[in-house]
Predict the 3D structure of the following.
Amino acid sequence: MIAAKFCSIKDWENFVDLKRELIELKTQRLNLGKMVEDITKKLKKEVEKKERLELEIAKLERLHIIGQLAAGLGHEVRNPMTTIRGFLQMLQSKTELFTYKHYFELMIEELDRANTIITDYLALAKDKPAEMKRQCLNKLLENLFPLLVADAYSQGKKCNFEPEDIVELDLDSNEITQLILNLARNGLEAMTQDGSLTIKTFMDGQSVILSVKDEGKGIDQEHLEKLGTPFFTTKENGTGLGLPMCFRIANKHNAQIKIETKLDGTTFLVRFPPRKSDPLNES
Ligand SMILES: Nc1ncnc2c1ncn2[C@@H]1O[C@H](COP(=O)(O)OP(=O)(O)O)[C@@H](O)[C@H]1O
Ligand SMILES: [Mg+2]
């Protein structure tokens, strides 16, 4: 060890200052080491996240391509199906084929079912941008109501509409009509005769709520988890595409669908968030 010589108090003070600076530098170096370690960890996590996202995007892209292919295929398959249906109808009316009448009916029914699946799938796969227009949801419902009442009446059921004062929303009329029809039809299908379907609109805070309530038997937990999965259906003639379409439409409108289900019925609640203010009004 080299002994330090101090000629004056000043020297001593300088030495103490230097020592203190050295200690501070050492502490800083330690802190820096810790910072570098933390940043490296964070970077590692970010890289992993990026890799996961890249995989997710690649998967989505593949799914998108498959979806487009399926939509194209569906579209192409519909034309020959129409021809086949036409011939079947023609043969069905021939007296010499009367014994096979039941088979023809069955074939036509099956073709119609396949056609419904394709139509629903194409509606779901269509990547059309929404055409938003500021309007009142109650007006849309008022126009649809006679159709819903007729639908309900033909099944021996009732349909009520209880609108409250709500603010206007930016809506794509065609899509929201589809959403209402799908929810209402599901509700009607869930009920036995004499059941009532109730459609309400009301405000909850700043949000507009559309509620579709049925008097069916409710939905099992096991089924509840699968709702919205394409092709999930518990109906003999269902397509399982109605709810996926509703979820997609709600999503396009930044709306959320909540399901409340009990043994005496199910309510689908669509919550439309407060509209973004007009750009002109901002500032
Ligand atoms: N209101 C409801 N009450 C009971 N079950 C429902 C209701 N809405 C939907 N479901 C269930 O969700 C499934 C999927 O519905 P959906 O996607 O519209 O297809 P689909 O009506 O063709 O079966 C239905 O088969 C049914 O089991
Ligand atoms: Mg349905």
